[in-house]
Design goal:
Blueprint (H helix, E strand, L loop, with lengths): L1 H21 L7 H4 L17 H25 L43
Helix pairs in contact: 1-3
Length: 118
């Protein structure tokens, strides 16, 4: 199911990009660049919606639905971790380092009793 949803999501994403790039912006004619075309208003009535604007709306809705579906499916997957198998620190046995071998200090140079000088 998730593979199907990913494929639909990718196709809709590419379609949405292409549909938006195919549309012309408001006031995109040459006269609007030089102050002409005052009959067209930027935020005024746009008239009947075109096929591209309806396709953009549908692609955006499908894109949002597939995004939510993918997010829901990724969140409901049981997570696994290697840390779930390990015991908490309080339950783990503490490894004691081996006791250091007690050695006698190495003898220095042998001391000879000093002879009195005659």
């Amino acid at each position: 199911m998730s593979i199907f949803l990913i494929i639909v999501h990718t196709v809709v994403c590419i379609a949405l990009i292409l549909i938006v790039l195919l549309q012309t912006g408001k006031g995109a004619d040459m006269g609007a660049a030089f102050g002409g075309g005052s009959s067209q208003t930027l935020f005024g009535s746009t008239g009947a919606s075109t096929f591209l604007s309806k396709a953009t709306t549908m692609a955006a809705i499908i894109f949002m639905i597939t995004s939510l579906g993918l997010a829901y499916m990724s969140g409901s997957r049981p997570t696994s971790s290697i840390m779930m198998d390990s015991k908490p620190a309080a339950e783990q046995p503490v490894d004691q380092p081996p006791p250091a071998a007690q050695t006698a200090p190495e003898p220095g140079p042998a001391e000879t009793p000093s002879k009195p000088v005659e």
